[in-house]
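User: Reviewer 2 asked us to show a designed sequence for the structure in our supplementary figure. I'm pasting the structure tokens here. Could you produce the per-position amino acids so we can include them in the response letter?
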């Protein structure tokens, strides 16, 4: 016996397809949407359709934009000779929050993950090589996550870039600020030791 109307069940199923949304959360979102006024619901639906229609990938860095170029690529004051390579658009936001990086970005839209059937051709590596091949780039900073897939992707790209006479660096990582040594794992401690710097 069906407990809820078919339309409500379909709506719940659509919410459940979103990443990080389980069955109960999907059901709560569906019920909340039904409690909205028709005007609010229409605005919600219009916002989804408008974003889907207007947001596209920047032809240069593959970040999300609704203009011809994203604001970072279009900014002539940025250092276009330094590219920071990240896995996802949300990583650009994280880097920009620090307000310390003044170069440009390249978004891969994923990392190499054989277990998930994601190979080098499934992410935006070819576009990165084309950018660097134009000869204007001096340094590429690999800023993929320090996990197995992020490390494998960084190593793969750095091998491809070796013949192109461009400096390839990796973000330093180690002990987070505010944490305690006793809680750090061996790999984190090793990376912290490898990335140590002089105290000035």
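Assistant: Here is a per-position design you can include in the supplement:
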């Amino acid at each position: 016996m069906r407990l809820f109307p078919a339309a409500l069940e379909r709506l719940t199923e659509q919410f459940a397809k979103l990443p990080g949304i389980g069955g109960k959360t999907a059901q709560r979102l569906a019920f909340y949407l039904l409690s909205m006024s028709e005007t609010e619901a229409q605005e919600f639906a219009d916002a989804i359709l408008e974003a889907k229609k207007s947001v596209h990938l920047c032809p240069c860095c593959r970040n999300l934009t609704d203009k011809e170029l994203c604001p970072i690529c279009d900014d002539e004051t940025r250092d276009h000779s330094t590219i920071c390579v990240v896995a996802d658009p949300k990583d650009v936001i994280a880097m920009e929050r620090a307000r310390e990086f003044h170069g440009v970005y390249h978004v891969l839209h994923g990392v190499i993950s054989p277990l998930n059937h994601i190979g080098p051709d499934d992410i935006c590596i070819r576009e990165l090589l084309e950018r660097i091949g134009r000869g204007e780039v001096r340094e590429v900073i690999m800023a993929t996550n320090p996990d197995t897939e992020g490390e494998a992707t960084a190593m793969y790209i750095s091998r491809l870039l070796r013949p192109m006479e461009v400096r390839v660096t990796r973000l330093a990582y180690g002990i987070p600020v505010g944490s305690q040594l006793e809680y750090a794992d061996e790999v984190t401690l090793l990376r912290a030791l490898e990335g140590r710097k002089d105290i000035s």
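For the response letter, you might also mention the following. The domain at 6-54 is CATH 1.10.8.420 (Helicase, Ruva Protein; domain 3). The chain has seven helices and six strands.
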